[in-house]
Amino acid sequence: MKKSAVKTKKSFKERYELFLSQWQLQSMVLPGILFLFVFSYIPMYGLVIAFKHYTVIDSMATAPWVGLENFRIILGDKYFWEAVVNTLGISLLKLAIGFFIPIFLAIMIFEVKAGPFKKIVQTVSYLPHFLSWIILGGMLISWLSTNGLFNQMLMAIGMIEKGSNHLLDADKYWMIAVLSDIWKEAGWGTILYLATMSKIDPTYYEAAKIDGANKISQIKNITIPMLTPIISLNLILNISGLLGSNLDQTLVLMNSQNSSRSEVINSYVYRMGLTQGDFSYATAVGLGISIVSIILLIITNFLTKKMNDNQSVIL
Asked: What CATH number is associated with residue 207?
């Protein structure tokens, strides 16, 4: 016990001395820490209004306390639970369909020899990420309209006789949201995987070739095991964010006809808080969702530790 304590104390001392020796570099972090403190930690005081009846004529200090009343109202609000169902449905579909596409795409790009084709594929796949949902949403609204590109293609190949506005069909919204999100983010999602694969020692592949392993075997036994930590990290982030659907996408694609299937928790909080002015209720919803997300993060981290020889990638 004493040896362990001495070793820990010495390790801390070494880190402290290293910090002092690099104080010029370490001081460059201070603006970021100050920004985080001012805009992320100080606003946490505003969470108290989740337990108050707050209006614009009150201050957070003078607003009357209502305890857990806002949370009781949430549990009986059918519109909130509709938003929860939509959020989980869209997020789970994105996870089931979209999580593996960047991995598959990254492996294909990695296996292509360096050249113009590889650069073109990377550029084309990355490009949608840099376009805002205002631009992409406008494109989708046009393409999916009655006389839009999508209907024109379907009519050209004889699949349909007459076009319809697909965004007005609530039953189609989930798949539209999922596929459009994959289109926008799949290419960008390959960056971490490509960066990880670029650090794999080429001698592993050379040894596998000598042993007679084909390309599929090399990917299965070398590439994917090397990607396991980053795959685990992305899985943790995706599952912990299941209740946080893309607000920008929802606000652009949602309309009065598909709102029953497109209203997600983030848009519900936005509507209740900023549109209807019920700040206490919106804060209570946001706080509850944040707590559930933290629980999901802890559970997912625990499960991924079992996949990585009891080693955590975040905690």
From this structure: 1.10.3720.10
Place of tokens 């001012």: 38
- Residue type present at position 313: V
Tokens 């029953």, located at residue? 260
pTM: 0.82
Q: 232-260: per-residue pLDDT in tens? A: 888 888 888 888 878 899 999 999 899 99
Q: Is the pLDDT assigned to residue 182 strictly greater than 90?
A: yes
Question: Is the pLDDT score of 55 beyond 70?
Answer: yes
- The stretches of 199-278 forming alpha helices (DSSP H) are 202-210, 215-218, 224-240, 247-253, 259-262, 265-270
d(CA 280, CA 66): 10
> Token match 């003078």: residue?
62
Cα–Cα dist 260/207, whole Å: 56
CA dist 103 and 234 (Å) reads: 11
Report the distance separating Cα 72 and Cα 203, nearest Å.
61
Longest dimension (CA), the chain: 82
Does residue 126 contact residue 184 with C-beta atoms inside 8 Å? no
Q: Same structural domain for residues 21 and 132?
A: no
Is the same domain home to 33 and 97? no
User: What does the DSSP 8-state code read for residue 246?
Assistant: -
Q: Which two tokens stand for residue 86?
A: 């939509």
Q: How far apart are CA 304 and CA 236, in angstroms?
A: 8
Q: On the CB side of 284, how many CA atoms lie within 13 Å of its CA?
A: 23
CA-wise closest residue to 109 among 29, 15, 197: 197
Q: How far is the C-alpha of 77 from the C-alpha of 67, rounded, in Å?
A: 18
Same domain, residue pair 227 and 281: yes
